[in-house]
Amino acid sequence: MNGFDAQLTIRTRRLVLRPFGPQDAQRITGVVEAGHRFLPPGAPGHVSGVRQWLRYGVHELQRSGQGIHLAMELATEAEARIVGAISLFKTQWGIGVTEVGYGVHPVHRGRGYAPEAVTALAGRVFADYGIRRIELRANLDNAASLRVAEKAGFVREGVLRSAGQEDDGPRDLVVFGLLRDDLADPRRPGPGSAPSAWRPRASCCAPSRPPTPTTSWPPPRTRRSGAG
């Protein structure tokens, strides 16, 4: 095995994870026009590049054998709606290791779509592709993305200081890992089960705040080397 299926499609309770394609041109154009930042690294910054990206650019990662980009699409509505994206990248087939990244549309954050997608994708690649370890890296100050990793059953393994880069400067990255054998360990919380430290507390009077960005893409300095 040295690549992911170009037509890889996964269905969950609420989502369909499937490749981007020309049929998404109108939806992605709207995302780019609105300036929403949840698409995979390499996505166009101007509407003029949308069709080319959907035909070729978004598929370069899969053709290279290093990973794949998938759309998160709602499966429960009459009109399909893209609510996020999820990717595998930096795949090392010889040792069975890959990395996962994701982003959720700002309007759809806080609904549990990211951990649902990560859990489903991890299960598929462990079962069908000979992968034994999946890594996930998230900014230390991105609480929403850290919750996604733990809800999906990933184990926090350490912090890489100043290993990430955002527009306003460097960021510390938290490294998580999930092993194929972890899924069979009855002592560990299963994927999708939030550890007690992350269980939400009911509150009737909490002040409203903008949703925290739910993203876990590789930092800009590493995008050329595998994120596509």
Average pLDDT, rounded to a whole number, is 85
Gyration radius, to the nearest Å?
17 Å
How many H/I helical runs? 5
Question: What multimeric state do the chains show?
Answer: single chain
Major beta sheet, specifics? 8 strands, mixed
How many strands?
8
Distance between the termini: 20 Å
Strand content: 25-35%
Numbering strands along the chain, what is their spatial order in the largest sheet? 1-2-3-4-5-6-8-7
Structural class: alpha+beta
Helix share, percent: 10-25%
Assign an overall shape. globular
What order do the SSEs take from the amino end to the carboxyl end, as H and E? EEHHHEEEHEHEE
Poorly predicted residue ranges: 189-211, 220-228
Helix and strand arrangement:
Blueprint: E1 10-11, E2 15-19, H1 25-34, H2 50-55, H3 60-64, E3 68-74, E4 82-92, E5 97-104, H4 113-128, E6 133-139, H5 143-151, E7 155-166, E8 169-179
Parallel strand pairs: 5-6
Antiparallel strand pairs: 1-2, 2-3, 3-4, 4-5, 6-8, 7-8
